[in-house]
Amino acid sequence: MSYRIARGEQGVLTFEPYKSMLLPLWRFRTPAIARASSAALWDRFVDFDANGDFVGMDMARKFIQMGMTRAKRYANHAGGRKYGKDGKELEKSTGHRDKGEKEESSAIFKEVWERCRKHDGYQRKKEAFQKEQKEWDREVQKEEGKVERVKEEDD
């Protein structure tokens, strides 16, 4: 069982085939684009639910969350750059040209992200997935323990 829910949007750009399916839908440049993007990602979220695919639902949720956080970063920092070349966090911008648009885009994604988190199907599937993952992890640990004991006996 290789998929992990992880924290926030971790792993969103690494887990295939979902990355390739969802990344083309993810855009936040303007509120109109964010509205269309979040609606398309929501549609995929609902499709994954209908197909009993929790991993797909969680990946769609992560892309929606990433739309919210990236748009917010561009609202807070002109050009979206949060850290300078020295690795220190840059001052937040107070009035750059796209600030209002990016804040609105972030709010659009936030509303859809909250809908994902509260979705009954998502909550039930997440709970079942976490239970299955714990059982899987226990089995793997048992197997690893058996392998270690065999190695010790061979030495």
Structural write-up:
The structure is a single chain. With 155 residues, the chain is an all-alpha fold. The chain has one domain (18-82, 92-154). Helices cover 66% and strands 0% of the residues. The chain has helices at residues 18-22, 31-50, 54-76, 99-118, 120-154. The longest helix is centred in the C-terminal third of the chain and has 35 residues, at 120-154. It starts with 17 loop residues before the first helix and ends with a helix.
Radius of gyration (Å): 20 Å
Gross morphology is globular
- Biggest sheet features: none
Question: Overall mean pLDDT score?
Answer: 90
Beta-strand fraction estimate: under 5%
Helix content: 55-70%
Low-confidence segments, given as residue ranges, are: none
SSE order, one letter for each helix or strand: HHHHH
| Strand elements, count | 0
What structural class do you assign from the helix and strand content?
A: mainly alpha
N-C termini distance = 31 Å
Tally of structural domains: 1
Count of alpha and pi helical runs: 5
Short key terms for the protein model shown above:
5 helices, 155 residues, mainly alpha
How are the elements arranged and paired?
Elements: H1 18-22, H2 31-50, H3 54-76, H4 99-118, H5 120-154
Helix pairs in contact: 2-3, 2-4, 3-4
Structure in a nutshell:
With 155 residues, the protein is mostly helical. Helices cover 66% and strands 0% of the residues. The protein has one domain.
